């Protein structure tokens, strides 16, 4: 059974504003100086050498004191200049610089199951990753979180958990990387092969097979599918929740997860995630009913 997901529309805000590097400046001014010449009356006795020497020393002393005062004023101005903000919690931004609102790092993902099955798809790329400012997002962690969350959604509707299948996950992962490398987003690849064709080339123990796919980005704003909001995935846990939300907000994909599509149900499944170097994320969640 073939199910198709719409690629979420990408939204990257453009900004024409430039941030100015502003530095606090301090200025300090001392008292105004008045260099008033000393006047002598015509009847004053002539200055002696000693009085001239004393006058010179006095002038030098006054200049020294004045220099000390100016230095003290400048130092005091530099110390008193910074502005103290008592309550940072009440401030949303400083100028055009928003305060840090990054998400917390992911919790420890619940291990989904076997990572090295006896049979794997030869085109399985293995683990992939992307570094954000919060953590290194690894495809293994995203797959574990997706598997756990899908089972939680099933439990909410009274449906038993899917068993993790490493071979199914390997086939899923090979399809995810193929979509990225050959630049398409579909259940049927450019060679005309559908989900069951790709699995049967690797192994043959599923009598029914289904697939959900999704595409998004990490570390950039994207428009969240079905939720009318902009999000930015910077953690494995947040990315996994976003992928599951995409599927649950689409009728056909939700029916596949909750087994509302036919009389039979799934008993196992595997998640295959590929994270490209540019932050593109392709995910395939494949379902299997074993013979």
UniProtKB/TrEMBL annotation:
The keyword Transmembrane helix applies. Keywords: Membrane, Transmembrane, Transmembrane helix. It comes from the Archaea. The chain crosses the membrane at residues 63-85. SUPFAM superfamilies: PR-1-like. The keyword Magnesium does not apply. InterPro entries: CAP_dom (IPR014044), CAP_sf (IPR035940). This is SCP-like extracellular protein. Residues 149-263 form the SCP domain. Residues 1-53, 96-134 are annotated as: Disordered. It comes from Natrialba hulunbeirensis JCM 10989.
């Amino acid at each position: 059974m073939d199910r198709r997901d719409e690629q979420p529309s990408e939204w990257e805000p453009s900004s024409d504003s430039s941030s100015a590097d502003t530095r606090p400046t301090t200025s300090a001014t001392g008292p105004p100086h008045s260099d008033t010449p000393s006047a002598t009356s015509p009847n004053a006795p002539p200055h002696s050498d000693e009085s001239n020497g004393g006058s010179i020393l006095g002038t030098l002393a006054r200049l020294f004191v004045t220099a000390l005062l100016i230095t003290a004023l400048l130092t005091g101005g530099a110390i008193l200049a910074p502005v103290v903000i008592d309550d940072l919690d009440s401030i949303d931004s400083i100028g055009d610089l928003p305060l840090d609102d990054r998400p917390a790092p992911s919790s420890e993902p619940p291990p989904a199951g076997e990572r090295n099955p006896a049979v794997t798809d030869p085109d399985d790329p293995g683990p992939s990753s992307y570094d954000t400012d919060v953590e290194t997002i690894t495809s293994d962690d995203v797959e574990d979180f997706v598997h756990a969350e899908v089972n939680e959604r099933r439990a909410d509707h009274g449906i038993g958990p899917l068993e993790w299948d490493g071979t199914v996950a390997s086939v899923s992962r090979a399809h995810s990387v193929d979509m990225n490398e050959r630049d398409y987003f579909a259940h049927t690849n450019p060679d005309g092969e559908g989900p069951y064709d790709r699995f049967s080339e690797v192994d043959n123990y599923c009598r029914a097979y289904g697939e959900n796919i999704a595409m998004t980005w990490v570390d950039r704003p994207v428009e969240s599918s079905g939720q009318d909001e902009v999000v930015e995935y910077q953690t494995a846990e947040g990315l996994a929740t976003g992928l599951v939300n995409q599927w649950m907000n689409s009728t056909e994909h939700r029916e596949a997860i909750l087994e509302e599509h036919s009389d039979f149900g799934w008993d196992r499944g595997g998640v295959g995630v590929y994270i490209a170097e540019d932050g593109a994320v392709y995910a395939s969640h494949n379902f299997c009913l074993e013979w």
